[in-house]
Amino acid sequence: MKEFINNLKGDKVIWAFIALLALISFMPVYSASSNLAYSANGSGNTVSFLIKHFAHVGIGFLIVYMVHKIPYHYFKAISMIALPIVGLLLLYTLFQGKTIGGANASRWIQIPFVGISFQTSTLAAMVLMIYVARYLAKKREVEDTFQKSIIELWLPVFGIILLILPANFSTAALIFSMVVMLVFVGKYPLKYLGIVIGAGVVGLTFFILVAKAFPDAFPNRVDTWVSRIENFTSDKPDEDNYQIEKAKIAIATGGIRGLGPGKSVQKNFLPQSSSDFIYAIIVEENGLIGAVVVMFLYIMLFIRFLIASHKANTLFGKLLVVGLGFPIVFQALINMAVAVELLPVTGQTLPLISSGGSSIWMTCVSLGIILSVTKKDEEIAQENLEKAQREEALQRLIEREMNGENVEEEEEITNEKEPQYAIEDVSDNPMKAVMGK
Fold it and tell me: Across-strand partners of 100?
């Protein structure tokens, strides 16, 4: 085990937090999946859900390991290629008209031959953040005008967000907020950033008016997220309020120490107890202590991302850590805030803890890229050490060669002064010396 840990590259503290969050996820997912087990087939067998979550986490760790081996600067080119592909996937996802339980669910696509549902917005968010980091790093080398930044930066950003917005308002809002945060960190001019934010607000208002005027154009989902905001502000009873009430009952029941692992009661009533509202189940079973521990891990992960960003040797590396790491922590805080009714229901999962394949895997890809950035620091230090050792060895070799050349030159001079003898006689007639005697 010690040898395996030593072979892991990158920030070991980030590795430790990833492992801790993944280990914490198994008990609440296993406990909360009983609701799904009874509703799906009526057997109540939760072992299959535990095995499925174990497979998702295992594949996620494999993804982290494989991605962190890739030099992070390769993702500059990858983002340029992946962005139009992601746009096409979002178009297909938006217009496929898939429904789940009679409601529009144009957020997932079915992967052929595998039977796994994949949420394309999670992939789009990650690719977009890498693309923005690449642009900001390039802008520091070659100054761009505001008009050029609109074409190269904001047109792709608003294009991706517009494709996500009708089906998933919370993800679109989170992506836009994270992009604004990233360009602010990347020292994009504030006066231009204010114009962009204003344009975004105007565009969102226009979109809502169009959706209200033509409800058939964007069925169900637009009405859903608009009604969520209205119900949150007016406390109108609906399905979301039902979930929030059950989540608050679970949190209140947990107390300080909780009911104990697997003893949650509200998991039988919360429809999304293993994903969107898993934090409420954690608090019910582990109490305030468990709630604080989970929150503490995410806060410490955030602090570690800050340290990793500060230590990165390139601007692109710094922006990558900020653009990919901060959304993970903010998504976790949003999920916790929804459980205690500080925010309306958003549908955001708890990273690395909630069940679900695509959300875990995309989080793991982001973490792998971050670890690749931190691994670069170690590699540079090792390369510098090896370079110094090579230069020292080369210097010694040159000195030996120089000394060897001096010896050979002295031998050549000595040989020129001494007579040269040969066994073979090359004269015309060896007897000429005695023929006249």
Answer: 103
Residue type, position 184, single letter: F
pLDDT digits (tens, 9 = 90+) for 74-123: 999 999 999 999 999 888 887 775 544 434 455 677 776 666 777 888 89
334: amino acid identity, one letter: I
Contact 10, 378 (CB under 8 A): yes
Q: Output phi, psi for 340, to 5 deg.
A: -105, 15
* CA–CA separation, 290 and 263 (whole Å): 14
Expressed in angstroms, the distance from the first to the final Cα of the chain is 98
Q: Cα(21)–Cα(166) distance, rounded to whole angstroms?
A: 32
- Structure tokens belonging to residue 279: 């934090």
pLDDT digits (tens, 9 = 90+) for 204-253: 888 878 777 776 666 555 666 666 666 666 666 555 677 888 888 999 98
**Structure tokens that stand for 390 in this block:** 């090579």
Domain boundaries in the chain? Answer: 2-385
At 119 the three-state DSSP class reads: strand
Q: What is the DSSP string of 146-189?
A: HHHHIIIIIHHHHHHHHHHTTT-HHHHHHHHHHHHHHHHHTT--
Q: How far apart are CA 279 and CA 332, in angstroms?
A: 10
Distance CA 121, CA 130 (A): 14
Ramachandran sector of residue 422 (left: φ over 0; alpha: ψ -120 to 50; beta: rest): beta
Helix, strand and coil in the chain, % to nearest 5: 75, 5, 25
Could you give the 3-state DSSP secondary structure of residue 103? strand
Alpha helices by DSSP H, 8-46: 12-40
> How many residues are given for the chain?
437
Q: C-alpha dihedral over 239, 240, 245, 249, to 10 degrees?
A: 110
SS3 readout for 279-330: HHHHHHHHHHHHHHHHHHHHHHHHHHHHHHHHHCCCHHHHHHHHHHHHHHHH
> Is residue 107 within 8 Å of residue 125, measured between CB atoms?
no
Would you call 265 helix, strand, or coil by DSSP? coil
Beta-bridge partner residues of 18: none
What's the whole-model pTM score? Answer: 0.81
341 CB-contact burial (10 Å; exposed 0-12 / middle 13-18 / buried 19+): middle
